[in-house]
Every structure is written in structure tokens, then in C-alpha cells.
Known about the structure:
By secondary structure, this protein is an alpha/beta fold. Helices cover 39% and strands 9% of the residues. It has helices at residues 6-11, 35-47, 69-76, 98-110, 123-142, 163-175, 232-246, 266-276, 281-295, 304-307, 314-326, 332-335, and strands at 53-59, 83-89, 115-117, 151-157, 203-205, 215-219. A six-stranded mixed beta sheet has the order 3-2-1-4-6-5. Helix 5 crosses helix 6 and helix 8 packs across helix 9. It binds guanosine-5'-triphosphate and magnesium ion. Guanosine-5'-triphosphate (GTP) binds at residues 89-90, 92-93, 119-121, 157, 159-165, 190-192, 194-197, 221-222, 293-294. This is Mitochondrial GTPase. Keywords: GTP-binding, Nucleotide-binding.
Amino acid sequence: xxxxxxxxxxxxxxxxxxxxxxxxxxxxxxxxxxxxxxxxxxxxxxxxxxxxxxxxxxxxxxxxxxxxxxxxxxxxxxxxxxxxxxxxxxxxxxxxxxxxxxxxxxxxxxxxxxxxxxxxxxxxxxxxxxxxxxxxxxxxxxxxxxxxxxxxxxxxxxxxxxxxxxxxxxxxxxxxxxxxxxxxxxxxxxxxxxxxxxxxxxxxxxxxxxxxxxxxxxxxxxxxxxxxxxxxxxxxxxxxxxxxxxxxxxxxxxxxxxxxxxxxxxxxxxxxxxxxxxxxxxxxxxxxxxxxxxxxxxxxxxxxxxxxxxxxxxxxxxxxxxxxxxxxxxxxxxxxxxxxxxxxxx
Length: 346
Ligand SMILES: Nc1nc2c(ncn2[C@@H]2O[C@H](COP(=O)(O)OP(=O)(O)OP(=O)(O)O)[C@@H](O)[C@H]2O)c(=O)[nH]1
Ligand SMILES: [Mg+2]
């Protein structure tokens, strides 16, 4: 898809359907921290001295919305020695988008960050990630850095980005068939709705039983940001707005399969859900958003920076996000968990 010019999008319009080009400003409640997320942040601080690496998971289709500046703060709070690898999941839902890839390369170069892109469910992708972890672990071994607790990797990220799925794929490489009736055993529960993992996991061994140095994972609950739009109906409407902008002709995609007409009316989508089951607008909105999370192929959630690549600064965006958090006075006590409010990325 070409995001560099709006006229390109116009060309794709059907004669009968015109998507919205402006999204209405809703005055809706903003998100707050949830109890189990605050607990997880505290646990991160507690675990920090044992950690060698943090693998930070983001959704490739929402590279901005699933970046959490709280994790950046974590690295400023005296944890700079921990290696950091950014992993974009759901590659299978955004295949071969060169423009997006080039954008990510540019952004991460600016911040001197390493990233990879994968499908959390793919065994070969998991194997490649394990090779990276093995390589990092071997480096310490060769430098005779003592690791009495093995090489420890925390898997962190926003809710529902695919952390537990990836943990399971990594575990499966060396332990999938050996244990328990040769059935594939999940070490970490996964699910379609956000908030499946409720607490930070025990350590999960992923290196071979007889390896010289163990590599261990710690799964964690998704941690969101306060101050984001939390109303599911508004979120669903925004998704519909984006979907129509990007795929105006794609009628079925992840509307309920039975209906094929594109629409700008989010309630008409909800009604298609009602047909199947009597549910509230909120439940329908959540179900529909979850369909995007699972199978929203080629629909980006963060579209503006790709439409206006020259006007968008990644650094500025993140500093802004950080400022928003700093000014989130109500929750200040909780945010102090992650140390001082030093400026980032400067
Ligand atoms: N297509 C596709 N689906 C994925 C991928 N990774 C995860 N999923 C799906 O996304 C949903 C969420 O996955 P989880 O692994 O439970 O996500 P999580 O980050 O552990 O979620 P929380 O614990 O709730 O924060 C599940 O339905 C997974 O099957 C991926 O790379 N590609
Ligand atoms: Mg999970």
C-alpha cells in the first residue's frame, strides 16, 4: 500500500462508498492503570537486578500505539545494563510492506534501537529469536561474566500484543515434544482478549536441558498507558475509520462474513453482531476490535505518520507521550515506581 499520498487512496474508492476523512472528536473517559499492571511494574523493578535482557513486544500494525514509554522510563531508572530488543509481532498480518519497514528502520535508527519482526506463532521465527538470545548469552559466557541464575529474559509489552504466544513458541523448540504425552503444552495462557496474563510468570527454561548455560524467560501481563481513549465504542469507530481509509474496497475482510457492504456507521457493524447474539454495544465493540487484533490483515492502526512521513518526528512523538504521563497527576504515585522523570531520548 502506498501511504505517501492521499490521492492514491481516492483512486481506490468505489463509486458508491466514500470513507470519512475526518474522525470526530469524542469526549470520552481516558484509561487508568489497572491493579495487576501496577503490580507488574513493581515486579519489574524487583526483578531488574537478575535480568540480562528485556524483549519488548509490539504489534507491527500499531508500532506507535503499542510502544509504552513506561518501559523507556524503566531503562532510565538505573537499568541501562540490561539489553533491550524490540520485537514486532503479527508479521503475518502485515506481509511485505516495504514502506512500513523503511519507516521502522528510520525511527529505530534515530533512537539507536535494535528490532526484529516476526510471527509469534511461527516455529522458524521463534528459532531465529532463540538464536539471538543464545548468541547474547554466549557472549557473556565467553567474557566469563558469571551468571549463576542463567541468562534471564523478561518478555514485556502492551496488552494482547502476543507475548505469551511467543513465550510458548520459544518453549516449544526444546520442550514441545519431550514432556507430557507428547502433546504440545502451553506454558503460558494466551487469548483473544487483552489481560489474559494476570501476573508475572515463574521462570520458563527455553535452552536445551544439557546446555552449558540456561536461558530463561519471564512472561508478564500487558501494561498499558494511562490517558488513552478507553471507551470501546470510540475505539471501534476509530478502527472502522482507519479500515475504510486503507481498504475502502475490501468488503468482507473482518466484518462478520455474512455481510459484504462497507459502511461508515459503526452501529451497523454492531447490529451484524446482534444478529448472531444479543449483546451490548460495548461487548460488540470489544469483539470487533479483537477480530482486528487477531486477523486484521493489512490494516494499520497508526496511519498518520505514514501519510505524512516528512512532518512526523518519532522522537517528538515519544517525548510528547512522556510529557502526557508526567502530567497525569492522579496516578503520580504509581508512576514513580519507575524512577525519576529524566528526559528521554535527548
Ligand atoms: N496472526 C497472529 N496472531 C498472533 C500473533 N501473536 C499473537 N497472536 C494472537 O493474538 C492474541 C493475543 O496473544 P497473547 O499471546 O495472549 O497476547 P499477550 O501479549 O500475552 O496478552 P496479555 O497477556 O493479555 O497482555 C491471541 O489470539 C494470539 O493467537 C502473531 O504473530 N500473528
Ligand atoms: Mg499474556
